[in-house]
Amino acid sequence: MSPIDQRSHPDPARPDPVPTRQHSWRPWVSTVARVALAAVFGVASLAKIGNTEAMVRAVRAYQILPESAVRPVAYALPYLELAVAVLLLIGVGTRLVAAVAAVMLVLFIAAVSSAGLRGLRIDCGCFGSGGVVVHTHYLQEIARDLGFLLLAAWLLVYPVSRLSVDELISEDI
Amino acid sequence: MDKPTQSSAKTTPSSSTTAEGSTKTAQRRARQERARAAREAERRSARRKKQGIIAAVVVVVLVVAVGIGIAVGTSRSGGKGPLVSPTDAVTTGSPIAVGGMLVGRPTAPVTLDLYEDFTCPVCGQFEKADGATVASLISSGRIKVRYHMLSFIDDKNGSTYSHRSAGAFAAADTYGGADKALALHTALYANQPNENSSAGLTNSKIIQLASDAGITSQQFVDAVTKNSYAGWVSQVADDGSKAGVTGTPTIFINEKQVELQSLANSQGQLDPAKLTQAIADAK
Fold this sequence. Notes:
Number of strands of chain B: 5
Oligomer: heterodimer
Shape of chain A: elongated
Radius of gyration of chain A: 20 Å
Order of helices and strands of chain B: HHEEHEHHHHHHEEH
Low-confidence stretches of chain A: 1-10, 124-134
Largest sheet of chain A: none
Number of strands of chain A: 0
Mean pLDDT of chain B: 91
Largest interface: A-B, 50 and 50 residues
Strand content of chain B: 5-15%
Strand content of chain A: under 5%
Distance between the termini of chain A: 17 Å
Helix content of chain B: 55-70%
Helix content of chain A: 55-70%
Number of helices of chain B: 10
Order of helices and strands of chain A: HHHHHHH
Radius of gyration of chain B: 36 Å
Mean pLDDT of chain A: 82
Structural class of chain A: mainly alpha
Number of helices of chain A: 7
Strand order of the largest sheet of chain B: 1-3-2-4-5
């Protein structure tokens, strides 16, 4: 028996949230979801963290936030994404961190959708598209973010995962 | 609930003989049940406490990350050093005007705002097709142009050329005047590097092109090699984004945006006659 199974609750009417043996694959799926979502947030963060001014312009281009909020949000967002990535990677408070990630993704999807609906062209038009006709990729971006949101949703429902700090510190309960 | 636990199952057989025994057993079972419930409650409270600590740690980490981000961003944006602007910098007026560098007579009836990047290929096409027309309309006094040289392609290809060339253009205005700066603008587009390359033109190549355009002062050379106008170039980029410009080239005639397509003929080629017409129609 694995340590997780030994921890199972003595009272069968109150099953422990820890998975039973017939779902032994589930924590591994959660591990994959956790690491994948960590990679998404990590890559997104590292792409922005070195270029503060470009991030400021990107946030401003959505024309959603008032000018006074543009810089704080642009400065904080890459670091917040990095923190979420690290917490997911090591697996601390997975359900709460997944909830934070889900909220961020919903906000991103809302921002991109609103930019698309308002007909904003948030694209340089300089790479790939040849410039004169500007291609925007709103639908692809929304579809991609919805996929990431599914990962976060899985972790909200099944936060228990293998190879996580959560697993380590729950051993001695 | 009514399933016997391991310990109570052990005691059951020995206590089933007398009524007294069964009462004792019942009392013992009740005690054990209470103790078990107490242990259970304790366990649950310990678990809740642990979860509370984990949640607090997560929240603290996230808040600290936000704090670091804002602190780092604020310190970076404040650390650019003194802002050196070109002589013909436009620092007041509408969001579209601010951040421009004025070329032409201030009294000219029509104003163009051109948002370009020296690395942007479509800007190069616009310059090639319409540059001469723009220059002659400037010298005849019919238009004045506020040039806003953006530099965001550096973010995409890892180059510094967009920034350096935009800085050289500003320095050319200060040390050679607006007309010679415009000549350098033309020369830089005639020698435009590939947008996917991070190399760009070297500073010495830029200095040579400026020299060919008649800008030969040592101060100009120093400004280019020391990148003295870097602060101005970031300022222009920030002002451009505040004006809602997200791509290049973006053209305004009398502060009204003109789509590049509307300046092209039916074959999709930029046609100077269309630009001349759009300027004539401008109110």
